[in-house]
Input
Amino acid sequence: MAMFKKIVKNFGPEWGAAVMGTAAICITMQLSSEVARPFSSLLYVGLGFYLLATVMFMAFLIPWTLRFFMYPEEIKKDLQHPIRGNFFPTMPISFILAGTGTNKLGPMLFGPWFAYHLSIVFFFLGAVGIFTFGYLLIRIQFLNKGVRLEHANFSWFIPPVSHLIIPVLGVCSMDVYWAETSLAPVLFLISMIALGVGFFNFLFVGAAVWHRYIYHTIPQGRLAPTVMVGIAPTAIIVIFLIKFIQAIEASQGTLFGINFMSMFSPIKIIASILWGFSFWWLILVTILLFTHYVKIKDHPLEFGWWAYTFPFEAFAVATGLLAACVASHFLYGMLIILNTLAVIIWITVVFGTIKWLESGAFLKPQH
Amino acid sequence: MKARSIIIALVIILIPFIIGMPLFLLRSSGRIPVKAHLVTDTRKNNGGVAYKGIKVDWTFCPDWEYKPLFFPAEEYLVFMFHYRNDNESNVQVMPSYTFASPHNRRYSANEEISMYIENALENKLKAEDQTPITFEIPSNATKHYIVTFEKPHSLDNFYVDVDVFRDVTLRLHYKKEDGEWSNYSNELIRKYKGRG
Output
């Protein structure tokens, strides 16, 4: 019991990142399975990742939730922290990802009816959590007198990313089952509000962090993985755009008066531009990582390595979906490479996390 | 790293593959019987529809059974559309599909179920399904697309709208006669171009 209490006390807000990094692989696997017949087994490997992510999600949700009641002072300390605080939305994001996985792979386990209803429950729980933490964190940031320039880092992108991910499940739900129901306008409105909040916060926060990177020193090595988070916002908007156009297409070509034929061409152009930005950022991360952090040997093993997984997988998903619209052969080829790399990164991070746990760092959190 | 930690890491890493591969082998081995009764292939009786140099044919299976892992099997209406381009130049198509049951209740196609049954249907019909939303059909070539609809209970007639042409919608009408589905008519419906 004493050990369990210790675990709950030290169970930081960042553990949702491990669920995110595992859950998103089920979607990269599902998309890769469609590329060509030899890859069709990946659909079932994706199902394996979905089940693993579900187990992790339930296992982490218990201590994560209990901590709010058993150790509210620890929660308060973390919320006030300019880095750790931003990781609170990772758990509500996990709800949205669990919902997306259930939407895509759930019918294999439970049939469409149950899977689509379950994913909508995840949507509302995730959306409530994301908006709640979004307001809480922005309030703390605005009122906190202790935030300084050197605190700015790309983990600040997590709250905007959390809002951007809501419309992904929103439009996935409208794609098939909910398009013709009275829930569709509700899903649409929540999705669009979240998209607006996420998009503008991404621009504002991005400018603040960019300012730090140019006018101040770049963060120390333990924060190096957070640079990867910069890939996520535009990659997620690409995912949203393609799923949105698929939802319009599935609704007899018109959804809320938005016409498929008139939207498809601009969406292809905008999605390609945004995908290009994510790709550019991926190269930037590689350059920063190898020409700075690795070179000066400042890249310690941290739980924060999970920040390498989800943004990269989101980029792989964006690539797979964009391939359904433009440059199919090239992008499908790239998807297979990215999916393989995503698994390699995930394996490395799992080993790293176990090693990190073995070192006892979990019980001595660094602030 | 201690040996115990390496074992824990390996177990976590192997879980998705250990779960996924047997399931894939089980599904692809044919040990889970698939009840599928192909009733119509318009290519056999020249029953397809041609418009502006594109010949649309379809194979229809009204009772494709898919068994989810934890739930009982359900039947689906499965079509494989075959688009042949008889024009001299390549054409780009963006087909979309809608199913309508009596009282004009409309349903979208279920892409997920299509994905799960894709291999089995491709094997059966010796044709490869297209993945992209939009795809090009070279001159004198044929491309195929799988469309799956969830089947409402006690269904005895329905129609499917195939939106592949710019100015008309192809509507396929089906009704049940003596327990068998019959494709009793097909029509090209002009699309509304107004501002309403």
Remarks:
- Chain A touches chain B through 52 residues (CB under 8 Å).
- The CA atoms of residues 23 and 53 of chain A lie 5 Å apart.
- The radius of gyration of chain A is 20 Å.
